[in-house]
Amino acid sequence: MGSNKPRILPWLIEQINSQKFPGLCWTNLEHTEFRVPWKHGLRQDRSDDDFQIFEAWAIASGAYNPAADQPKPPVWKRNFRSALNRKENITVKDDHSSDSKDPHKVYRICEGSNSLSPDSAMAPELSERSTPSQLCMEENLESELYKLDICQASEELYCDPSFQETAILDLSPLEVSLSLESAACRFIHPQQSPLYTTMTPSPRDDAEASSLKSCLPLQVQTTALLQPNPLEQFFPNQNLETEFEVKVFYRGKEVKSLMVKNSCGFRLTSCQGPPELLDDVVLPDPSTLLNDQEVVRSIQTLLCNLEQGVFLEVRGAYICARRQGKCRAYWSMTETPSEVKPNEIAKEEYSVLYTNHQFISDLIAFMDRTRRESPQYHIWLCLGERWPDSNRKPWKKKLIMVQVTPVVFKLLHEMSYSTGASSLQNSDLQISDSLTSDNLLRYLQDFEERMEH
User: Fold this and answer.
1) How far is CA 257 from the centre of its chain?
2) Are 310 and 345 in contact (CB under 8 A)?
3) What is the value of pTM for the model shown?
């Protein structure tokens, strides 16, 4: 990139002051904290406006030319986030990116920054303590990273065409409209983040890569030889691989419990079907399990309409659900939801229930004590009745409730307070020796930094 590429902080301050971007604004009178809209690409209410600031930075930094390049909103967003994360004088104050009503992040500009004037938009954002050699290294490092196309988060290292073709089969119109970079890209070496990359040059960039490596301090070059993040065993290529604990309740009574070992997911149904990609979880006949015959008849009516099933599937980093047939289905992330508006699972199309990023972000906040509550990763499904409902009917009064627990999330949660072994009693999951409760937070933070969300 040329020398005219602006620095992210003074450039961003200028954009905030311009008030041209919806949702981008200061949140305090001192103008040291600002919010950035952070709507997820899978949301049905997303629009082009939600990516305006990310696109603007891609254009300003030279990473995107609207006249020649294909638009890639997920890449713009990732590059924007990485550009901010590289600045020591900018920190995330509040992360509300998973908020269903108003997803956003609040950033704080730390004291001591000398780049707060928009007039200095083309000047370096460096601390007063930086030495000339450090200034040179930062300039060279950022410039060479852009030249090598491995900048920000190695977003375009490799895209497997065969995976793209299979990943879009049977998708809803919502998912088909997403960019393949967001939904179906796999990277050859996902561990090659700024922390782990060995800066191996491609043939066309050999000279630039050699120059870059010579600028790196010894500590960075040594860090590049470290082992990959052990969380990759659970989230290969940032996708989720997990088993599921499934419990079925009829009027609050547990009538079935099993471990689904198929990491693709399962189908809730009333009858066993032919072998498919997903496992069948067949709900039992209530006649031999319950005494109240009226309740039995009501449940049997629902089961008669459940033959085509409710599907819970892992699609990349997302746990999604869809239903077929006449039996409606609803969901929440707790058995005691505070809201009263029902969350219905869409018919045929996919409803996103939970994501890797939601869990990892909440677990980090729980571990560093910025969040009091434990992560809510247990998925509760209600079949045939609204859930939640305006009458606040308790879950034990519902005819059919199903609790789904992704075992990986349960394991990592329990490891956060040193009791993770209990989750392995009925599971085939194995934990890397390098992952312990003592270093879990550090690995989670590193992994979150590299995630697309």
Assistant:
1) 28
2) yes
3) 0.54
Q: For 13-42, how does the pLDDT look when each residue is reduced to its tens digit (9 = 90+)?
A: 999 999 999 999 999 999 999 999 988 765
Alpha carbon distance 21, 192 (integer Å): 33
C-alpha distances out from residue 160 to 163, 167, 186, 188, 414, Å: 5, 11, 6, 9, 35
Encoding tokens for residue 172? 């809803």
pLDDT tens, position by position, 162-195: 333 333 333 333 333 333 333 333 333 333 333 3
Cα–Cα distance, 396 to 231 (Å, whole number): 36
Q: Please give the Cα distance from 412 to 418 (Å, whole number).
A: 9
Q: Residue 277: exposed, middle, or buried by beta-carbon count in 10 A (0-12, 13-18, 19+)?
A: exposed
Phi and psi torsions of 353, nearest 5° = -95, -40
The residues with which 382 forms a beta bridge, in sequence order, are: 330, 401
C-alpha triplet 6, 104, 78: angle, nearest 5° = 45
- The structure tokens 């000339």 sit at 132
Write the DSSP symbol of residue 105: E
**DSSP helix/strand/coil, 405:** strand
Distance CA(34)–CA(105), nearest Å, equals 8
> What span, in angstroms and rounded, lies between the C-alpha atoms of 376 and 362?
8
State both tokens at 104: 């956003």
Provide the residue type at 397 as one letter. K
**115: which 2 tokens?**
């780049």
- Do 8 and 87 touch, CB atoms closer than 8 A? yes
* pLDDT value of residue 135: 37
Q: How far apart are CA 295 and CA 274, in angstroms?
A: 30
- Which of these, 116, 114, 108, 121, lies nearest to 7 by C-alpha position? 121
The C-alpha atoms of residue 293 and residue 286 are separated, in whole angstroms, by 9
Q: For residues 385 and 388, what is the distance between their CA atoms, to the nearest angstrom?
A: 9
Q: Per residue in 37-50, pLDDT tens?
A: 988 765 666 777 78
- Is residue 78 classed exposed, middle or buried when 0-12, 13-18 and 19+ CB atoms within 10 A define those classes? buried
| Residue 44, helix vs strand vs coil | coil
Q: Count Cα neighbours of 406 within 13 Å in the Cβ-side half-sphere.
A: 29
The 3-state DSSP class for residue 26 equals strand
